[in-house]
Design brief:
By secondary structure, the protein is α+β, with helices and mostly antiparallel strands. The protein has a single domain, classed as Orthogonal Bundle (Arc Repressor Mutant, subunit A). It contains five helices and three strands. Helix 2 packs across helix 5. The longest helix has 26 residues. The chain is globular, with a radius of gyration of 15 Å.
Amino acid sequence: MTVNKELMKGSTATLVLTLLARKEMYGYQIIKELEVVSSGLFEMKEGTLYPILHALEQSEAVVATWVGEEGTRQRKYYAITKQGRALLKAKKEEWRNFKETVDKVLQG
């Protein structure tokens, strides 16, 4: 089963922030973690993830740090900020309200 991309569009930032609230991660790690946690249902492409990370970084919801010694492969790790945690809290509440309302409609 796959998820319609339009359904995913409104929740990707929330999913990314949720994963980063658990631990700092680099981009590919976020993609793989999302895939594992969702049992393969959510498959995010790099072309989707990095614009989200950049937007979150611009809004100061996440900070990025390059990790690795010079001359070796370096990775850009992302960490949620205090502002990001507040945004995540608001996004989760918004999602709960949306889900409850959709459930009411579906149950008739």
